[in-house]
Amino acid sequence: xxxxxxxKPRADAQKNRELLLEAAKEILGRGGxxxxxxxxxxxAGVGIGTLYRHFPTREELFMAVFSRxxxxxxxTAEDLVERDDPLEAIRSWLHANVDxxxxxxxxxxxMSLVVTEDLKQGYTERSSLLRAAVDRLLxxxxxxxxxxxxxxxxxxxxxxxxxxxxxxxGPDWRENVLRILxxxxxxxxx
Amino acid sequence: xxxxxxxKPRADAQKNRELLLEAAKEILGRGGxxxxxxxxxxxAGVGIGTLYRHFPTREELFMAVFSRxxxxxxxTAEDLVERDDPLEAIRSWLHANVDxxxxxxxxxxxMSLVVTEDLKQGYTERSSLLRAAVDRLLxxxxxxxxxxxxxxxxxxxxxxxxxxxxxxxGPDWRENVLRILxxxxxxxxx
DNA sequence: CAATATACGGAGGCATCCTCCGTTTTCAAG
DNA sequence: CTTGAAAACGGAGGATGCCTCCGTATATTG
Lengths: 190, 190
Hints:
The structure is a homodimer.
Chain A: H1 11-31, H2 37-44, H3 48-54, H4 58-81, H5 86-102, H6 108-121, H7 125-144, H8 153-166, H9 173-188
Helix pairs in contact in A: 1-2, 1-4, 4-5, 4-6, 4-7, 5-7, 5-9, 6-8
Chain A binds a DNA duplex through residues 7-13, 16, 36-39, 41, 46-50, 52-53, 56.
């Protein structure tokens, strides 16, 4: 509608936002979804009030932090649609997720939180894109008749994060997660 | 070694322990694994110190609360070993878990916490029993050649709780969880 | 250089965690 | 029944985290 002429966003605000994202990436990456937001603010060197002004809820902060990661996953999924074998494409995509996640265990809870939260509410463009990309992967498999009906992108993603999250961290983490995921993928066959 | 003769455990201590377990069942059932322990003590009508004396860590409290639930699951698993179709037996056992869990959503995180925690450390008799029972289910399927190699009882249980936990609560919860689990079970086929 | 919209910081109120220790209760020996 | 020590109790208290509120500071614009 009538777009009101607005002032240019203040430089310091933008800088602080950046500092907060940086700090959050660090702190949340280590401490997981329950990490202290006070700590994030401290690390960023801003007041706690500033944090809450930029990101009124924990979720919004997560969301912002993960935008880039999500982008990467979208690109990966879109590339994989080209592949001939849809089931293997899905397997590859899941493996890519595991790789991405392996270095950021702490973010896992947050990831699944983001995925479910905003898929549920459906108002975030980025996650729609991700879901769409994954859905295309699934669709291709379904159309060939290689993948069973009744499995949504949400199902796939939630299961992925659930499995990653439930597994105890440790030297065998990656191996175990991949093993379980493979079973699940096999179950997707028609 | 030389078992020292000890005093009979005090009556009040035992009573308080019971009160605490009762309260914990209630509070944790609602509030989940992050529920306030202060609240548990309040509800039990004992001092917070008393709670911490009986259950020095959150995990130990969970553990105690879930003993009975675990017992029930053990019995169920043992019954199912008799069944002819191992894959369906496993499916049934998983469904039984879902049913048990459905009325106590809040306990989910705690459940998986217990399972992983003490399976990892392997010092709890009860969870060994549970794992053994589930393993027997799997073994039977493996021996018939119906179930693939390389899947442990831990795998099964952790995946179960992971899936239950990741799914958003809601009217479709049960349906969705069962759907995903079925895919996983199908993946277990050889 | 104002004027003002915008952003900042952090104190403060409340909740939770967990420890520590002075007080109370129970048990059992005499 | 006493009585004293072992066992258990309760909750204050210090630490940390959450989030709100508002007085202060500063960037932008005319």
